[in-house]
Amino acid sequence: MIEVKGLTKCFQGHTALNQVTFKVPSGSIVGLLGPNGAGKTSLIRILNQIYLPDEGEVYIDGRNLKKEDAFLMGYLPEERGLYRKMKVKEQLLYLGRLKGLQQKEALQRIAFWLKRLKIEQWENTYVESLSKGMQQKIQFIATVLHQPRLIVLDEPFSGFDPINAEMIKKEILRLHQEGATIILSTHRMESVEELCQYVVLLHQSNKVLEGEVSHIKEQFKENQYLLESKTPIRWEGIPVKVLKEVDIVTGKQYTLSLEEVSTSELLLNVASQVEITRFEERIPSMQEIFMKATLFNEE
Ligand SMILES: Nc1ncnc2c1ncn2[C@@H]1O[C@H](COP(=O)(O)OP(=O)(O)OP(=O)(O)O)[C@@H](O)[C@H]1O
User: Fold this and answer.
1) Ligand 1 centre and the CA of 13: distance in Å?
2) Does 298 score more than 90 pLDDT?
3) Which residues pair with 76 in a beta bridge?
4) What is the dihedral of CA 36, 34, 1, 94, to 10 degrees?
5) What's the rounded Cα separation, in Å, for the pair 269 and 239?
6) Are 18 and 8 in contact (CB under 8 A)?
7) Residue 220 CA: distances (Å) to CA of 187, 188, 208, 262
8) Prediction pTM value
9) Under a CB-based contact definition with an 8 Å cutoff, are residues 233 and 274 in contact?
10) Is 185 in the pocket of ligand 1 (CB under 6 A)?
């Protein structure tokens, strides 16, 4: 759906984006990741036509992005911006109308969303007297009210307690199931694990990693295994490197790197000593991949 080619953006001699190219697969949830200052917000602002790039192009459905595409998009910025002196419903109606909704339809959708996010009793309250989390919900509604096909969410969970964060997560998944393409920019890697099928990692203004989460995990695997046993294992004579050993409720957990030994040989050997309660290949977490990919590409 969205394709970005050779995007470059400079601010007073500082290059915030350097020839960044990637694709956002239609109908996916894409994690836009990167350390502080990597260039994510600059990129998001270009996608939302707040900034013009110095070089490069953004394509939507194979053609150049144009002004009217703003109606196809919903953007939840990191720095929230509601009119504090307006009442909730009044404000959502105003923002919905700006995005092209007719009054009647806008009111129906506002009622639907306020109920859905369990804040319908606040519809006639001034925004300034709402809690931070409630204001966040209003801003989330303002982002999705016009049923955008592309939704860009910058740190959508910040300010939410765990219950409300879960509620927003479910709504993101539901919007995805209904066909929206979602770009999620976040520093919370556990959210990336839970929600994203695809990631783009920026570091120091460059794209350093892009692809399906499953492929990236495959690529970063290191032939390591997790083995749990009810009692301690004697490793003498078994060609493995024990990288980590921890006590767990039901016994011991070992992280192993296999040398000159297959998994079945290892299991045969260990099973003759102890009862094995768990054995699996260790798949790196997004947190580990993030750290590795950024450190590897450090200038
Ligand atoms: N309007 C601006 N004027 C000057 N410099 C800017 C401007 N916007 C961004 N920059 C610079 O561009 C670089 C990238 O910033 P950007 O906000 O895009 O990073 P980010 O990845 O969103 O960071 P964070 O995770 O901290 O929000 C930074 O060095 C920042 O100081």
Assistant:
1) 13
2) no
3) 153
4) -30
5) 11
6) yes
7) 20, 19, 14, 20
8) 0.90
9) yes
10) no
